[in-house]
Design a protein that fits this description.
Structural class: alpha/beta
Oligomer: single chain
Largest sheet: 8 strands, parallel, barrel
Mean pLDDT: 92
Helix content: 40-55%
Number of strands: 14
Radius of gyration: 26 Å
Number of domains: 2
CATH topology of the largest domain: TIM Barrel
Strand order of the largest sheet: 1-2-3-4-5-6-7-8
Shape: elongated
Bound molecules: cytidine-5'-monophosphate
Length: 447
């Protein structure tokens, strides 16, 4: 059982040692860790700061967000661990080797030190991500870096309250998740924090600890001791409350599809002529960068997990072509474009596909699978030309026969989400009325 103090980290955002020590003396009955950042470390020096804090028998989080070549980061982090740091953070975008080497060397120095990843800085938005050459949205990039940090053996991640639940799903129950951007309800000042969460909410949403700065150090109504005590008590009370159920990544993805309007409810006629109260317009996905990023990232992880052998990515025309193109870019396998009709210009011939080597393996990409007829047509065209197809991947499987039919053709169908998962999310929504929910239930009974 963790003690209540360990849920609270105080950010010592000050320049001098006496100021830092005064704050420690005022709050140490309620605070588990003290966070020292570049401001004080560059002013006073890491050995001096750590010695002073360790003399007071408190745990220290060295917030230096290291990022450099593996050897340099490893040595810098080992030095901080040697001086007694209890938590040290490094940038996940430094890459797998940097993280792995660093965590191994730091644990050899001190087995109890926690090495924590920083993912996407909360000051960066989607347009900043594009400027620095990231194809994914900031939210999806956090998911990607959380996975990388976990695979590298890091202990956890610093993330905003908004990302907490997804990061928990990705990194698991044992991960140590640190949440900044905390404001108690009694502190009206958000300062420069845009999205904030109360200590209580951070706890019930499953954080392991939280960083608080100005609500304790610069509050107008409470001195640091009182403010730290109030937050400590709020945390203690929240620890007795039940935790909020963590949504799965699929739940979050379905939420994004609903927000993007990719999933629609109403009265629709599907391509196969049947009626449906749900229409999934994945063609709309490219208009919504956040949901699109998530779809592409989820496809790459699904594919990596299944690990099918493939040389080329092939989209089923026309709806899936943009998704196939982006997936090809994300997983570094070139696209093989299938034409609906053979060409009657340029290199005229019977080919519906150009630019491939015989026997190459194609991973077929489709947006929605219902009966699977369009995927079968594409598989047959590829195979007719001597290409091999063993796997197909779809964003949504409407579970109306595609999987079984493709299996008979020797093609395994991977899907990101099923109609059932979408429907489960729709039932939980308040903006869908009971009559519609009932039509969906009736449809699911008969579909
Ligand atoms: O509570 P307050 O806003 O004063 O806390 C600020 C502290 O939390 C700073 O030390 C800052 O570096 C850190 N932090 C943050 N937001 C992040 C990551 C860290 O405010 N996303």
């Amino acid at each position: 059982m963790k003690n209540t103090k360990s849920y609270l980290i105080l950010a010592l955002d000050v320049k001098t040692l006496p100021e830092a020590i005064e704050l420690v003396e005022q709050t140490k009955d309620y605070v588990g860790y003290y966070k020292v950042g570049k401001e004080i470390l560059n002013s006073v020096g890491l050995p001096t700061v750590l010695r002073a804090l360790k003399e007071r028998d408190v745990a220290v989080f060295v917030d230096v967000k290291e990022a450099d070549i593996p050897n340099t980061v490893m040595n810098a982090v080992v030095a901080a661990a040697r001086h007694g740091a209890d938590i040290i953070n490094i940038h996940a975008f430094g890459g797998m080797e940097m993280m792995r080497k660093t965590v191994q060397a730091a644990k050899a120095e001190n087995p109890n030190v926690k090495i924590i990843a920083v993912s996407v800085l909360t000051s960066l938005g989607d347009s900043d991500m594009r400027d620095i050459g990231c194809m994914y949205s900031a939210e999806t990039e956090v998911w990607k870096l959380a996975k990388l940090a976990k695979d590298a053996g890091l202990d956890g991640l610093v993330c905003s309250a908004k990302e907490l639940q997804a990061v928990r799903q990705i990194m698991g129950e044992d991960a140590f998740i640190i949440t900044p951007g905390i404001r108690p309800a009694w502190d009206a000042k958000k300062n420069d924090q845009k999205r904030v969460m109360t200590p209580r909410d951070a706890i019930v949403n499953g954080t392991d600890t939280m960083v608080v700065g100005r609500s304790i150090t610069k509050n107008e109504e409470h001195n640091p001791t009182e403010a730290a005590k109030l937050i400590y008590e709020e945390i203690a009370a929240a620890l007795d409350e039940p935790k909020v159920e963590t949504p799965t990544l699929n739940d979050i993805f379905v939420e994004r599809l609903l927000e993007a309007g990719v999933v629609k409810t109403g009265d629709f006629t599907l391509k196969n002529g049947t009626k449906s109260p749900i229409y999934i317009n994945v063609r709309d996905l490219p208009r919504h960068h956040g949901a699109l990023s998530m779809a592409i990232y989820m496809m790459t992880t699904k594919i990596a997990k299944k690990n099918p052998e493939f040389d080329r990515v092939g989209g089923v025309p026309m709806g899936a072509l943009s998704i196939a193109n982006m997936l090809s870019f994300a997983c570094g396998k070139s696209i093989l474009t299938l034409r609906e009709q053979a060409k009657d210009h340029g290199l005229v011939g019977t080919k519906t596909v150009e630019g491939f080597e015989p026997e190459e393996k194609v991973l077929v990409i489709e947006d929605v699978a219902t009966s699977g007829g369009s995927i079968r047509e594409a598989v047959e065209k590829y195979r007719f030309l001597g290409l091999q197809v063993e796997n197909a991947c779809v964003v949504v499987d409407r579970q109306q026969g595609a999987e079984a039919m493709l299996k008979e053709l020797g093609v395994e169908l991977l899907s990101l989400i099923t109609l059932e998962e979408i429907v489960e999310a729709l039932y939980k929504r308040d903006d869908i009325d009971e009559t519609m929910k009932q039509s969906i239930r009736d449809y699911m009974m008969t579909a």
